[in-house]
Design brief:
821 residues, alpha+beta, five-stranded mixed beta sheet
Length: 821
């Protein structure tokens, strides 16, 4: 095809593109690469498939989509001026602000058309613009799928199958000359509707009620339902063809008439420019960074507390997967947050690989070995780990509490929470935040309006919501969840994007950690002990100190300072973990900036004195104690009845309860028993002993094929070009060779002789080849060596040297000397 010859097909248009343009197409529509097309014709065919076109349409912005919709109702092919008129109007309306809007459309249309061309949705020169057939079918109007423009079928389409007599009646009522040719009759009626002067004269004679009917139909939907006895205004419209029958009960306003009433516009409100992002507030950037850092530090504390909560084995997994509502409520109460917020933290820890299933028979959730590595990181590195996991996660915590496609409740950590659009929406929301000056908080409504313009919803197109119960504006809901989650996680502070989040998006985790480090307080190595059996941590504590203190005392309140309370139960917990009373005294004396209060020393000594006085073992369980009076006291206590104890010896009792239940029961009665092994040794309970096997974080579910890198794109373009050369190769005629574009057929002897001759002369040949899977292809190769039943050649199709078994070559044909490259 010459450079000045207009393309006749999409394949010819793609063939005329540069390599950079083809790479742009494959980058914009990566699904076309799975697998790499054999040639340009196959690429064009794949680009016109329904699934691929739907995916491409869903990635257009609103004006590009409006441009495609206008082309869908325009003649095929359509000149550029016709397309522009459908978007701007014919200039004969009331003109209220249309000039300014028309100028904006005129300026934006070339860019929208370039986008459609780049994605192979539109091809052809400006004088003959073609919308690909599949896109036209998806966007064109029909009773089943009304057009997004609100326009109905053309007069020709609506009158198909109408009797000649009925056409004559319409022409007569409309004041047109009669004709017995149905084609001429349809053309005359369409010409009337497209002639502004004659159409205006016709409408001037219409009853007011008929004009009101047209006003209801003009912007869509253009279909109306008839009653058995239509009103006179409706009958007037039917007689003159302004309402044409679709069925016995349905009529439609033809497209040409609707365009006249719309002053030639395909859309009521074209949107050539994206909505402006309005600032809701402007704050001090440093205050924003400090607020975000504080919230980020609270996020770390919350995740650490969740890991401690499930340290010794978390809740059981439901049979259908996920966390029960009761366990979610329990976690929310322990974290002192609402249930939706608790679900967010649990899902975030799971996405970051800090929580997983332990895989045991009695399957439970528990921290992973990676959680210990995470806890050893600095605060800023822990935050970047969480933020990075949140950005990439497809699991969407906001869906929890809703229902899936089968009406089943969606649970925390359960199935069906992946939404492949979530990462892209999160990144786009944060990019819009970043487009504002530092410290500026955007208005959420204008943020949503901008997102809808960039990726408009298409509820009527195939491939809409994946579940009937799920709202069609899922992207908008994800955007709102993103705004809330970003504030909770410390990505934003006081509604504006923090500088550490900007660094995370632009430069990566290391730069974000460096920005965050000065804003996070240094961990402290001391607490302040008080006489009321409490300890105050005036800031974050070093991890060893925090871990030990969390075992020795209970957290009473959190905030800028954390208050710990010492109780007999908490001291006993420390003793159960293997600490001696002297160790606890030394620990407190070392890490307290105030003297150790006497009541706290007495509490430790009192609990230590009684700790281990009773011994619990397995009988089902037994209790032994050297002090008979203590056992007598237990038996006399009515609260021990549920333990079903009986005396075996003066210092031993047996119980039917298991050792764990017996331990808890006696502790609730105020005793401090210690568990012992079969050898009589005291069992030490260490915190954090339960971990899952090594687990990898859940893999995000991609929205589609990944965007290929430049290396893959260049290789794919070369392969497609070479394959196209092979497919279109003009070979020398021979008695057994096939026509161009089909596999050549030659005998084994002819094949061997031809490739040997090509190897000696260094020329290229055209071969047909069938691989081990039975897939046939045609290639242009330059043989280098022929031996042992194999031919080694440079394959122009694959752009590499390959070896082919001769028995898999169906035939070979020589290329002419003047073969174009």
């Amino acid at each position: 095809m010459g450079t000045t010859t207009p393309p006749r097909t999409l394949a010819e248009a793609l063939r005329a593109r540069s390599d950079e343009s083809l790479a742009g197409l494959l980058r914009a529509r990566p699904d076309l690469l799975s697998p790499v097309p054999n040639d340009i014709t196959q690429l064009a065919t794949r680009a016109g498939t329904r699934a691929s076109v739907v995916r491409a349409l869903e990635h257009l912005d609103r004006f590009a989509l409006q441009t495609a919709e206008a082309l869908a109702v325009a003649p095929d092919p359509a000149p550029y001026d016709t397309l522009l008129a459908l978007l701007t109007g014919d200039g004969q309306d009331d003109g209220d602000g249309r000039d300014e809007a028309g100028a904006a459309i005129t300026a934006a249309l070339p860019g929208a058309l370039a986008t459609l061309r780049e994605q192979a949705l539109v091809w052809g020169e400006d004088t003959r613009l073609h919308l690909v057939r599949t896109a036209r079918e998806l966007l064109a109007p029909s009773p089943q799928h009304p057009s997004p423009t609100g326009l109905g079928p053309t007069v020709s389409e609506a009158t198909a199958g109408m009797s000649p007599g009925r056409l004559q009646e319409i022409l007569t009522a409309a004041g047109l000359p009669a004709t017995h040719d149905p084609v001429s009759a349809v053309a005359a009626l369409a010409g009337l509707f497209t002639d502004r002067t004659r159409m205006a004269e016709l409408l001037d004679t219409a009853p007011v009620e008929a004009l009101a009917v047209l006003d209801r139909l003009v912007w869509g939907p253009p279909y109306g339902e008839l009653t058995p006895n239509p009103a006179p205004p409706v009958q007037w419209l039917r007689d003159r063809g302004l309402l044409l029958p679709v069925s016995t009960r349905t009529v439609v306003l033809p497209r040409e008439a609707a365009l006249h009433l719309r002053a030639g516009r395909a859309h009521r409100v074209p949107e050539p420019m994206p909505p402006a992002l309005v600032a809701a507030a402007e704050r001090d950037p440093q205050a924003v960074d400090r607020a975000a850092a504080g919230q980020g530090f609270m996020a770390l504390s919350t995740v650490e507390e969740l890991l401690k909560l499930w340290n010794n084995g978390g809740p059981a997994i439901l049979r259908a997967g996920g966390l029960s509502v009761r366990e979610l409520k329990r976690a929310a109460a322990a974290l002192d947050v609402s249930e939706p917020v608790a679900a967010f933290w649990i899902e975030l820890a799971y996405a970051a690989g800090l929580l997983a299933s332990d895989g045991e028979t009695d399957e439970r959730y528990a921290p992973t070995p990676a959680s210990d590595e995470w806890l050893d990181l600095s605060a800023q590195d822990r935050w970047t780990h969480l933020a990075t996991a949140w950005l990439a996660a497809t699991r969407t915590a906001g869906l929890i509490g809703g229902q899936d496609s089968k009406g089943r409740a969606l649970s925390t950590l359960g199935p069906d929470l992946d939404r492949s659009a979530a990462p892209e929406v999160r990144h786009r929301v944060l990019a819009l935040f970043a487009s504002l000056p530092p410290g500026t908080a955007p208005d959420p409504q204008t943020l949503l309006a901008r997102l809808r313009w960039e990726r408009p919803l298409r509820t009527s197109a195939p491939g809409g919501p994946t579940t009937p119960g799920e709202a069609s504006d899922l992207r908008s809901r994800i955007a709102l969840w993103t705004v809330n989650d970003a504030e909770t996680l410390g990505i934003t502070g006081r509604g504006a994007l923090s500088s550490q989040a900007r660094a995370l998006l632009d430069e990566g985790p290391d730069a974000a950690a460096a920005r965050l480090a000065p804003l996070i307080p240094e961990p402290l190595d001391h607490v302040l002990l008080q006489a009321d059996l409490t300890a105050v941590a005036p800031g974050p504590l070093e991890r060893p100190l925090a871990d030990t203190l969390s075992v020795l005392a209970d957290i009473e309140s959190k905030g800028g300072a954390t208050v710990y309370r010492f109780t007999p139960g908490s001291v006993r917990r420390a003793l159960d973990a293997g600490r001696a009373a002297t160790d606890l005294h030394a620990f407190l004396a070392t890490h307290s900036r105030t003297p150790v209060p006497q009541p706290l020393s007495y509490l430790i000594d009192d609990v230590a004195r009684r700790h281990g006085h009773l011994r619990i073992g397995a009988a089902s369980a037994y209790v032994r104690c050297d002090d008979e009076a203590v056992l007598n006291e237990i038996l006399a206590d009515k609260r021990s009845a549920t333990l079903r104890l009986r005396r075996l010896a003066p210092t031993v009792m047996a119980a039917q309860a298991d050792p764990g239940s017996l331990l808890e029961g006696l502790r609730e009665m105020g005793y401090a028993p210690a568990a012992e092994s079969a050898e009589g040794d005291v069992l030490i309970t260490r915190a954090g002993a339960r971990r899952t096997p090594p687990r990898t974080p859940p893999a995000p579910v991609p929205e589609g094929p990944p965007v290929p890198d430049s290396t893959l794109l260049n290789a794919a373009v070369r392969a497609v070009r070479a394959g196209d050369t092979a497919a279109r190769a003009v070979h020398r005629d021979g008695p057994d060779t096939a026509t161009a574009g089909s596999l050549p057929r030659t005998t084994s002897a002819e094949t061997l002789a031809t490739v040997q001759a090509a190897a000696m002369t260094g020329s290229a040949v055209w071969i047909g080849y069938v691989n081990a899977d039975g897939a046939a292809s045609q290639r242009v190769i330059a043989p280098v060596k022929v031996e042992g039943g194999f031919v080694t050649a440079y394959d122009h199709t694959a752009d590499e040297v390959r070896t082919y078994p001769l028995h898999r070559i169906t035939g070979v044909a020589e290329l002419p000397d003047d073969q174009p490259t």
